[in-house]
Each structure stands twice: as structure tokens, then as C-alpha cells.
Amino acid sequence: MLPVAELHMHIEGSLEAELVVALARRNGVDLPTFDPVELKARYRFTDLQSFLDIYYANLAVMKTEEDFYDLGTAYLTRAAASGVRRAEMFFDLQTHTQNGVPQEAVFAGFTAAIADARTATGISADLILCFLRHLGGEAATQTLREAMPFRDRFIGVGLDSSELGFPPSLFTEAFGIAGSEGLHRVAHAGEEGGPDYVWEALDLLAVERIDHGNRAMEDPELVARLRDEQVPLTVCPLSNIALKTAPPELADHLLPAMLAEGLLVSINSDDPAYFGGYVNDNFAAITNELALGPEQLGTLAENSFTSSFLPEAEKQALR
Ligand code: HPA
Ligand code: ZN
């Protein structure tokens, strides 16, 4: 596995079924089944929402700082062992505060996991606070204002959860505040929503990266802009297959076409515990199923560092 930066993964999406069960027992939370194999057998998705329903339900087991530490440590240890040198991890703060967890516990657990993983493995990692689209724009603004005491614990903001019906235009206020705070800005767009969501994310939210962006390929003018401005697209092949946001066969994925267009694409796992694997598994799958040579695989790995928010000197040290 080539060294890579992973730029599109939801830390909560690395919650393996075994850890769901262990945390449920530790915290006295009920589950539909305490057998991880049975729990995992329920992971059959028809679209983004059918995944999100299960993902949010499982997150009811996360209660204490220790839980967040354990989740972060599990991902970072595994990622470091499989070639990830840098991780920019999304976290869904609102999910946890809605579940009654104080934000202090979320920040403390993840921050400690990042520090300890760096000491143990050398991996560099930071957090990106994602707003949940389905809770709306005012909730996003309020969440960001309330998180300001922890401003130094995250490097940027993102936008995730149910895409259709929740366009980027609803979140201009929160992203405006994030910009004035010097935070980086990214957004999921063009996963289920059309090219118009990508245009809005660029024009109204001033994002520096588009998460997914596959549907941008439907709009030649947009493709030209993404190429000219070298806007990073964080593509997640196994996620696209699992959520049916790409053709059913990986062999028909748009990734080679995106590379041929000169787009700055990278490979990412999105929610590795749910979609069939980590970033190395995504690389293995595209290597097997798509006609990509060593040069293109090298470009994808290189693009991941180019697209990261690390200062240039630190990037060079990791490549
Ligand atoms: N897409 C959108 N929102 C999400 C995802 C995803 O794959 N995972 C967690 N929140
Ligand atoms: Zn995602």
C-alpha cells in the first residue's frame, strides 16, 4: 500500500459492529441484537438514507469520553498500519449532543486518541466538524458558535447527512462564520444531489474541497471549473457501490473518466465499518476492478497529499 492521506472518512463510520456491541454492554444500551454478525447482517442499503438510519441508531452506544477515545484509537491504529500517514476525520458533533453527550467528552476523547496515535505510530490526524444537513442551517450556526471554546481542536467544517432536499444554500451563515474564524471548509455534494449542489457548495459556501462530487461529471462546465481550479474531489468507490450512487459494478465507476478529465481526485473510505473496507481495501478494489496502472495509482496517492490541509513542509515529510 502506497502512503496516503485519507481526507473523507467519518470517524463514526469506523465503528465496527464488535465495538457497537462492546460499548452497548459497557453503557447499558439496548440493541436489536448483541451478536455482531447478526448486527452486521442488517447492513443492507438501498440509498444514503437507509445507511444513515442504521449509522445513527448504532451511535446511541457512544456515551463517554472513553468511548470516543476507543473509537478514534481503533481507526487511527488500523489506518496507520495500512499506509495512512495523514487523516482528516469528519465527526458528527450534533449526533452526540442530541444523544445527551456533552461536547467536552467528544472533543476530549478524540483529541487524546489523536495525540496517543501520533506518539504510537507517527500518524498525523485532525478533526473536521460536520454539520448535519437534516437539522438545518440555524442548528449548524448554533452548533458552530457553541463549539468555539474548542476552536483549537478542529481544523475545519464540513457538511454531511441526508443530501437531497438540503442544499448547500441553507448553510451559508455557518460557513461564513467558519471562514471568518480561519477554519477550512468542505462539503458533501454531488453524491445523491446533482451538479447544482456542487456549484452551490463552491459559490455559496466557498468550500476548498468537494466530498464525493461524482455527479459533477454530468455538467461539462462544472468539470472545466473543477479542473481549472484543481478543486479536490474526495471519491469513495466502495461507498458508492454500497449506497448505489454509482453503477452496480465497480468496473463501471467514473473514476478513470474523472482522472482522464484532469480532476484532482483522491481515494477514501467514507464509512469503512459499513461499506466493505478501509482505504487500503478501496485501493485494492479499484486496482483489481478498474484498468488503472501504477502511474494512475501513484497519482491518486499523490493527489491525497496535495488535497490535504497540512502545511506544505509537513506534507513533504509524510509523502
Ligand atoms: N454521506 C453523507 N453523510 C454521511 C455519510 C455519508 O456517506 N456518512 C456519515 N454521514
Ligand atoms: Zn462521507
UniProtKB/TrEMBL annotation:
One of its GO terms (molecular function) is zinc ion binding. SUPFAM superfamilies: Metallo-dependent hydrolases. It comes from the Bacteria. Its EC number is 3.5.4.2. Keywords: Cytoplasm, Hydrolase, Metal-binding, Nucleotide metabolism, Zinc. The active site is at residue 191. The record marks 212 as: Important for catalytic activity. Residues 3-319 form the Adenosine deaminase domain. InterPro entries: A/AMP_deam_AS, A_deaminase_dom, ADE, Ado/ade_deaminase, Metal_Hydrolase. Binds 1 zinc ion per subunit. Zn(2+) binds at residues 8, 10, 188, 270. It is an enzyme of class 3 (hydrolase). GO terms for cellular component: cytosol. This is Adenine deaminase. It comes from Conyzicola nivalis.
